[in-house]
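User: tokens in, sequence out, please.
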């Protein structure tokens, strides 16, 4: 591995840049709980580990070179993101029409929906072929071409995943600390609307992404 300091700085900048993972973590932290946000993070990081393993064994290269495989993953990921976005926007109708008592009842129901938070984070990450493209284009810049790539790819993938985990844990705890404000009906409605629109936008952007 070369330019380790540059690699770490680039990782941090890329991780804090908002994306689908951030939108899902925000949604689940505010609508479910801090536990739901943490489960989402674990799911996303498990997806990153799969992409790391894929890069190490060369599967990412196959995905990038195969227009068919890229298209399949792209549309699966796009449909799932749009589904989550539409589902999030649909909750706006519930937020605006429910009384506080009904909202309290809904919050109890959320306790039993936490099992899906991990799946949402995992599927959002693992079905995004742009992550595979990122690993194939970003990681090789920090590997000595005269040596093997197996171990460096593995180490860099694990470092990126660990940094992602640390950032999102901080992010979820920060959201949870200000949740009293964030969970006000008016604030929640705005956040749900923005999150839903962002998820749909990411889904459409992903669907229009071309394989190179």
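Assistant: Sequence out:
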């Amino acid at each position: 591995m070369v330019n380790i300091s540059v690699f770490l700085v680039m990782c941090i900048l890329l991780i804090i840049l908002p994306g689908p993972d951030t939108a899902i973590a925000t949604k689940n932290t505010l609508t479910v709980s801090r536990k739901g946000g943490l489960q989402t993070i674990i799911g996303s990081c498990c997806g990153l580990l799969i992409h790391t393993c894929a890069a190490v064994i060369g599967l990412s290269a196959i995905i990038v070179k195969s227009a068919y495989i890229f298209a399949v993953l792209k549309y699966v990921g796009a449909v799932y993101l749009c589904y989550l976005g539409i589902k999030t926007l649909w909750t706006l109708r519930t937020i605006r029409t429910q009384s506080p008592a009904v909202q309290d009842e809904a919050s109890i129901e959320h306790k039993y929906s936490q099992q899906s938070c991990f799946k949402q984070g995992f599927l959002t990450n693992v079905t995004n072929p742009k992550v595979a493209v990122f690993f194939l284009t970003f990681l090789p810049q920090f590997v000595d071409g005269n040596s093997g790539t197996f171990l460096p790819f593995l180490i860099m993938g694990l470092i990126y995943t660990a940094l992602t985990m640390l950032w999102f844990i901080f992010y979820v705890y920060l959201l949870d600390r200000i949740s009293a404000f964030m969970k006000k009906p008016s604030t929640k409605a705005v956040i749900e609307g923005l999150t839903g629109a962002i998820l749909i936008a990411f889904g459409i952007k992903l669907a229009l992404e071309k394989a190179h």
